[in-house]
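agent> Task received from the user: take the single chain below, predict its 3D structure, and emit structure tokens. No templates, no multimer pairing.
agent> Plan: (1) validate residues, (2) run structure prediction, (3) serialize to tokens, (4) report one or two observations.
agent> Step 1 OK, no nonstandard residues flagged.
tool_call: predict_structure(input=
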Amino acid sequence: MMVGVSEFLQKRRSVMARNMTAPGPDAAQLRDLLSIAARVPDHGKLAPWRFIVLQNDERAELGKIAAAALNDDSVAGQFGRAPCVVAVLACPKPHPKIPRSEMILSAGAACMNLLTAAQAMGFAAQWLTGDAAYEEAVLKALGGEDGDEIAGFIYLGTASEAPSERARPELDDIVTFGLTK
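)
tool_result: status=success, residues=181
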């Protein structure tokens, strides 16, 4: 691995959406970011994910839909915390050999590629779900169909303050070499 990439990944840190401001990525940058997001493992070349870019008033509109679905006005502004929000839908397709779980994981990989690419491009980014991600009305407003799921909302903008480091797990607590008996 190139030293620069390794160093970047070791220091990668999400910026909380509430600590984002404009500008977000422009149209050309978004196209580049979404192209990178789509370059993930995809068994069978099924493209089991979709990207819905929310900017301007669309963020507030989705917030109102989420607030109504959750019967909670406090969530109405959640999508307005960053200038751009990309909803990533997991859209698994029936397949005789490829399990649904692989398609869901591919959508998760697309979320991570988008998050990492945005940060590499100099933008602040955070991957969130929250209660709205599990509401049928929100999924439908994003064009989701039966069997689809919201893998996440990727918030994109500019950091208003540098993110602080957080505790990470000790490798000895999460890594095992070889089979356990």
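agent> Step 4: summary for the user.
Helices lie at 3-11, 27-37, 57-70, 100-120, 136-141, 171-174.
agent> Done.
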